[in-house]
Automatic annotation (TrEMBL), chain A:
InterPro entries from the UniProt entry: PhnI (IPR008773)
Protein name stated in the entry: Alpha-D-ribose 1-methylphosphonate 5-triphosphate synthase subunit PhnI
GO biological process: organic phosphonate metabolic process
Lineage: Bacteria, Pseudomonadati, Pseudomonadota, Alphaproteobacteria, Hyphomicrobiales
From TrEMBL, chain B:
UniProt cross-references to NCBIfam families, sorted A to Z: PhnH_redo
GO BP annotation list: organic phosphonate metabolic process
Lineage, highest ranks first: Bacteria, Pseudomonadati, Pseudomonadota, Alphaproteobacteria, Hyphomicrobiales
The protein's name: Alpha-D-ribose 1-methylphosphonate 5-triphosphate synthase subunit PhnH
Organism: Mycoplana dimorpha
Family annotation (InterPro entries): PhnH-like_sp (IPR038058), Phosphonate_metab_PhnH (IPR008772)
UniProtKB/TrEMBL annotation, chain C:
Organism this protein belongs to: Mycoplana dimorpha
Documented EC number(s): 4.7.1.1
A Pfam family: PhnJ
Taxonomic path: Bacteria, Pseudomonadati, Pseudomonadota, Alphaproteobacteria, Hyphomicrobiales
Homology family: Belongs to the PhnJ family.
Keywords on record: 4Fe-4S, Iron, Iron-sulfur, Lyase, Metal-binding, S-adenosyl-L-methionine
Coiled-coil residue spans: none
Top enzyme class: lyase
GO terms of biological process kind: organic phosphonate catabolic process
Single GO term (MF): metal ion binding
Task performed by this protein: Catalyzes the breakage of the C-P bond in alpha-D-ribose 1-methylphosphonate 5-phosphate (PRPn) forming alpha-D-ribose.
The protein's name in its UniProt record: Alpha-D-ribose 1-methylphosphonate 5-phosphate C-P lyase
Reaction equation(s) it catalyzes: alpha-D-ribose 1-methylphosphonate 5-phosphate + AH2 + S-adenosyl-L-methionine = alpha-D-ribose 1,2-cyclic phosphate 5-phosphate + methane + 5'-deoxyadenosine + L-methionine + A + H(+)
Signal peptide: none
Length: 370, 201, 297
């Protein structure tokens, strides 16, 4: 007898059980600790924090463990948690000029006040598998410079003092910075919302788009004015007290990309900027973001919009990996009702096609015979 | 004068009361002319009535600037709204998401409020108007979405020009304001789609 | 090292926080006031993936109360895994009564079908919508489609449907078949088969549509005109099936094709599982059941 498929509930619960089993893996090995993930897989943690828009290393590490290392899944889990958090207020803009930098490089000047600081970078490592990491060998402490860490001037400010680069972006007067997690999206959008979307956007997607601008799809002749990584103070305005109080420090990566601009009737020739700012240490993301930010400002500079990276609606609508993965993966859900509708139509059209061919055996049959 | 009026008078069960009030308003908006009963108790400062207060607690917050009649604006209501909902009072009818008119208060012309735009007709003001009751007034005949054939109500205490105001509003569709009429614990919704005619004929 | 609190969060009734519910509720009221118009809303990240019903889930969460009885279907069936999962979610976060019986439900959340049983006043049907914009496949840009709706410029849609006829002899749209609501807005009915379109017209129930990823809510109030787009020489018609349901014998219902073996064996059964079971409980019997009863003796 035909019995319709039942028991979805049991199947789901068994699937969850198996997932938990696979997540834990070999029970003879110790379970990986959240502290270990934070300490030893820090860049994975940073990416999850950045794209989930939630600065909490321990929770990001928990999400990574829960997601078995699937980064987009971890980002998704952390975002869903973030949504449920109440808002206590809005911080004042962080002052990256006051950053305590751990890394700071500029491609535009050989030397500059504050110097080039390599910091903990992969840049000049030789990508040879390191057998010493197979064992838990003792690792030397990093070297620290003596004395206080002084803020170092931003490279963009050097150019700015000569008037050779546009000023920091200004929002229209009275404009309250938007928040796309609280308000519905609307096109065209202001740069504040665009930057927020990019900061939450998928690293791989932005990387590909940024790369495409370098290859001629909206070329902007970019130079890395500066990439800096370090800690900044987060402050909250307290109207009751009349001043801002510090909530603590967070690590961010900032990229100021200096790009070309010939000038216009209104503006003298000067460089333009692309901006990237991301939670944690994520240089690739910050750089890609700054390239895409600059490309998306095409209209502002009267440039022709000819490439994907310049197309605001295209870029912003598809940058979110949680949305993208949900919709792509939803295709595996049952669609048999719709498929039945299509099947029925195709069968009908097929029948009509064959009837037509039977009535007038012509070219089609000849072709088939060849 | 104490501020107890400001700090008291909200829902006893905020989550469930707001849900119950919303469902009543939603059903009434979906079935214009149907008289709904608001069972959750809100006690806003005078002269605003209970049902209007319940609607405010249910739908207003810091994202919804609220316009009040001069009478309401000088009552304790602005403080009560700010404390319980976070909503701020605006003098600009065009930016108000909600507007409240107490019983007997002067109802401004509908076209003074935001009617939304052709692209975003949802960005319009919802007017909450207290009336004397839903019978005994001028009979109105209602047709349109949500109404099978015709609905009839006779709200007392609406401005004399109400029918022509409503017809002018209907003519703007898809733009236009939406109305929530309240009296005691009763509510009737008249969305912009409802065609309102004098019901005498 | 900051430790992770074991008590991460206590979730509000129906998961969403109250501010979010208010925002969604306001959008629903405007949606009802402008039938067929897509109201933008600040869709939240839900604990299930985008594309899996987050819009419907947010609408349901914003309207449901402790007295509601919820039914969730996917492809017309209560026991498809995603329907089971969404039902379990609401059982958990709202501790509410659930049912598979269409007649008992006050809220029905659906993906891809409208129940066969006529819905009544007091019921609300919540659709999960993947792409709310009916013009999206003709014009990918939101900025453009918004203008088209504003100006009531729907010529492109008619051109597309007519091109189908010219090329295939048929309108090749079989599901998500566009409708016009109350003579004004062209609306996507969600990917229901066009078989279900007539059920939307002058329905006694309130119909709400939630698109989470695309951040839109729209509505069709009860007793509202919903007309499928068509042409005088090619009137709209729904799918018909040659045979009744093999299990309950129902005619004029939407059927799923079930592959029985690898030799071309097929049977057609009701897509609406509750409707089918109810009919069988009332003694209706299709060919497949009759055959089974015979052989069992």
């Amino acid at each position: 007898m035909y019995v319709a498929v039942k028991g979805g509930e049991a199947a789901i619960s068994n699937a969850h059980r198996l997932l938990a089993d696979r997540r834990r893996g070999d029970r003879t090995l110790p379970a990986i600790g959240i502290e270990q993930i934070v300490a030893q897989l820090g860049l994975a943690v940073d990416r999850v924090m950045a794209e989930a828009s939630l600065y909490d290393r321990a929770l990001a590490a928990l999400a990574i463990r829960q997601a078995r290392g699937d980064m987009i899944e971890a980002i998704f889990i952390l975002r869903a948690y973030r949504t449920t958090l109440p808002r206590f207020g809005y911080s004042v803009p962080v002052e990256t000029a006051e950053m305590q930098v751990e890394r700071r490089v500029s491609a535009t000047y050989k030397d500059l006040p504050g110097g080039q600081l390599l910091g903990p970078t992969f840049d000049y490592t030789h990508r040879l598998l390191d057998p010493s990491l197979l064992r838990d060998e003792a690792v030397e402490e990093g070297l620290q410079r003596d004395g206080e860490i002084e803020p170092v001037m931003r490279v963009a400010d050097i150019l700015s003092s000569e008037g050779l680069v546009e000023d920091d972006g200004q929002l229209p007067e009275g404009h309250v910075p938007g928040d796309l997690t609280r308000e519905p999206l609307e096109f065209p959008m202001e740069r504040d919302l665009r930057l927020q979307a990019l900061a939450r956007g998928d690293e791989g997607f932005l990387l590909a788009l940024g790369y495409s601008t370098q290859r001629g799809y909206a070329r902007t002749h970019p130079f890395v004015g500066e990439v800096r990584i370090g800690e900044v103070e987060v402050e909250l305005d307290m109207p009751e007290l009349g001043f801002a109080v510090s909530l603590g420090r967070i690590q961010v990566t900032e990229c100021q990309m200096i790009a070309q601009f010939k000038g216009s009737a209104k503006n003298p020739p000067q460089f333009t900027r692309g901006y990237g700012l991301v939670f944690g240490q994520s240089e690739r993301k910050a750089m890609a973001m700054s390239l895409v930010d600059r490309a998306l400002r095409a209209e502002e500079f009267g440039e022709d919009i000819v490439a994907p990276a310049q197309d605001e609606e295209f870029v912003i609508s598809h940058a979110d990996n949680v949305q993208a993965t949900g919709f792509v993966e939803h295709l595996k859900l049952p669609h048999y009702v719709d498929f039945q509708a299509e099947l029925d139509l195709v069968r009908r059209m097929r029948r009509e096609y064959e009837e037509r061919n039977r009535e007038e055996p012509g070219e089609d049959t000849l072709e088939a015979a060849q | 004068m104490t501020d107890t009026q400001i700090f008291s008078g909200a829902f006893a069960e905020p989550v469930f009361d707001a849900q119950a009030v919303f469902r009543t308003v939603m059903d009434c908006m979906a079935r214009p002319g149907t008289i709904g009963t608001i069972s959750a108790v809100a006690k806003p400062p005078q002269p605003l009535g209970a049902a209007a207060g319940a609607v405010a607690l249910t739908l207003c917050d810091h994202d919804t600037p609220v316009w009040l009649t001069p009478q309401l604006a000088k009552s304790k209501l602005p403080g009560w709204l700010a404390f319980h909902t976070g909503a701020t009072v605006t003098a600009e009818k065009q930016v108000a998401r909600f507007a409240f008119v107490e019983k007997g208060g002067v109802v401004p012309g509908f076209d003074m409020f935001s009617q939304g735009t052709q692209e975003y007709p949802d960005r319009s003001t919802t007017l909450v108007i207290e009336v004397d009751g839903f019978d005994g007034g001028e009979p109105l005949a209602l047709t349109g979405p949500g109404i099978r054939d015709e609905a009839r109500i006779a709200p007392a205490g609406l401005p004399e020009a109400f029918v022509s105001l409503a017809q002018a509003n209907r003519a703007l569709f898809p733009r236009g304001i939406d109305l929530i009429l309240v009296s005691g614990d009763e509510v009737v919704c008249l969305p912009r789609t409802t065609v309102i005619r004098n019901g005498e004929a | 090292m900051n430790a992770v609190s074991t008590e991460l969060a206590t979730y509000n009734f129906a998961y969403l926080d109250e501010q979010t519910k208010r925002m969604i509720r306001r959008a629903i009221l405007k949606a009802i006031a402008i039938p067929g118009y897509q109201v933008p809303f600040a869709s939240r990240e839900m604990p299930m993936p985008y594309g899996w019903g987050t819009g419907g889930v947010q609408v349901t969460a914003a309207i449901l109360g402790p007295d509601d009885v919820l039914k969730v279907i996917d492809q017309g069936a209560d026991d498809t895994t995603n329907a089971v999962s969404i039902r379990a979610f609401f059982k958990k976060v709202a501790n509410m009564a659930v049912t598979t019986k269409t007649g008992e439900a006050t809220i029905i959340q659906t993906r891809h079908r409208i129940p066969e049983e006529k819905l009544t006043a007091g019921q609300t049907l919540v659709y999960q919508v993947p792409i709310p914009e009916p013009l999206r496949f003709l014009e990918p840009r939101e900025t453009e489609t918004r203008k088209m709706h504003a100006l009531e410029e729907y010529g492109l849609m008619h051109v597309k449907l007519y091109e189908d006829i010219a090329r295939n002899g048929h309108i090749a749209t079989t599901y998500a078949y566009p409708v016009k609501v109350e003579g004004r807005y062209v609306m996507d009915p969600s990917p229901t088969p066009k078989f279900d379109n007539p059920k939307m017209h002058m329905s006694e129930a309130l119909q709400l549509f939630g698109a989470g990823r695309e951040k839109r809510i729209y509505a069709v109030p009860p007793y509202t005109e919903v007309v499928s787009l068509d042409f005088e020489d090619h009137p709209f018609e729904i799918q018909t099936f040659d045979k009744p349901c093999a299990l309950c014998g129902a005619e004029n219902v939407y059927l799923d094709e079930v592959v029985l073996d690898d030799k071309g064996g097929r049977m057609f059964v009701c897509s609406d599982t509750d409707h089918c079971e109810d009919r069988r409980d009332h003694g209706h019997c299709g060919t497949m059941l009759a055959y089974d009863k015979e052989t069992a003796r």
